[in-house]
Amino acid sequence: MTETLFDPLFRLPLLTGLLLAGLLPMLGALAMLREEWLAALGLAHLASASALLGQALGVPAVVGATLGALGGGAIKTFLSARGNIAYGFMILAGWSATLLIGANTALGEQLAQALVEGQIYFAGLTELIAGLLLLALCIRTLPRLMQPVLRARFFPRYETANQLPAWRWHLGLDLLTAGGLAIGTLTLGLMGAFALVLIPAWITFRLAPSWRWTLIGASLTGVAGYLLAFVAALELDQPFGPMLVGVLLGMTLLVRSLERSRPMQLD
Amino acid sequence: MLGLWGPNGTGKSTLLKAIVRSTRIFSGHIELQPGLKLAYLDQQPLRRSVMPLTGRELLWAAGVQAARPEVLPDGLAPLLNRRIDRLSGGQYQLLWIWSALATDADLVLLDEPTNHLDPANRAALIEILALERNGRGMLIVSHDHDLLSRVCSRLLEVRDRGLIEAPTTRG
Fold this sequence. Notes:
The complex is a heterodimer. Chain A has twelve helices and no strands. Chain A is an all-alpha fold. In chain A, helix 2 (about 10-35) crosses helix 10 and helix 4 runs antiparallel to helix 9. In chain B, about 25% of the residues lie in helices and about 20% in strands. Chain B has helices at about 10-20, 55-60, 90-100, 120-130, 145-150; strands at about 1-5, 40, 105-110, 135-140, 155-160, 160-165. The longest helix of chain B is centred in the middle third of the chain and has 13 residues, at about 90-100. The interface of A and B includes residues 156 and 205 of A. Chain A: It holds the Pfam family ABC-3. Chain A: Its main location: membrane.
């Protein structure tokens, strides 16, 4: 197992994936706090479609995916497009565009398949640099965004009452999530990135003793699930994306059974 | 501390929403002192079935700088390190109201703060509301006349034709 992890051939993909496996669950926890986890799937689909569109126009996939997802995130903020209906349309539009562009370009077809399957082993220096950039942005902006985002959740009229520019932090978080989903989709695949946003946050929302530990726990759960999936996919010669989703779903079932076996607490 | 009392449907809650710029004003106007910082709580505390924040983190989110147990009213200190989704409805409501009172807001607006509270928690709320707020203002809207007359220094009754001054036990 350790040989697989430290094989020089997979060093770059492993590092890139590790970065994203730590960051995406944190963004997922914030999306779950705002009850916007479905938006992550919409953004992942938009990233996927715009990566292919970029490819068709001669733009690198990482640039195309990021621009598409950021555009989606910005539109979401400015139109105040919240709720399942908006995200449902985002998912359908992204899915339709991905497959149509993929079907009509030779390179696009390969990329579309890679995005759906999640072939992390092809992640290279570009994806690693993009991941590091995302990490730097998260370190810089998340501590500043955290309090306004939490306040907006529990005291939603505070900003209006005090005429504060709430759109700034909503846009900041939407763009950060969109950027994370774009890089995540290109590196881990569409469903792999979405699973890392949804499942670790879902697990730690149930188990963590505090918000601080929710963020830490989500990140650690994402990393643990990712490492397990990485090794299992290589050892068992399976596609990475479905393996990652499978491992994370397995963790969910484990937590669910633990929850059911726990005695009910009465306050 | 000003109380606004009156039967349902007389526009008490709408008035609060107008002050916090959350509803359209069709006639008249509201003048707020420039730079006035407001805190406003709706009738119903926002609560989700799964929400992994502690009481202390909720206060931090509200803008309370240092939620030290010794400055908290009786009964709230033990809630600081517990997850808010594992508190009873009444405990959560008291903590939620305190989160507005403990901020540096110049004016706190509370809409029906005793809704859904049992007698014990209602009594705890009266004690909390009666605490000195260093000259900062509070406007409470409620149909609970007893609460208003005990905690407010001035009480107005909303009638069809306007507002009428009503007596309070606090004076």
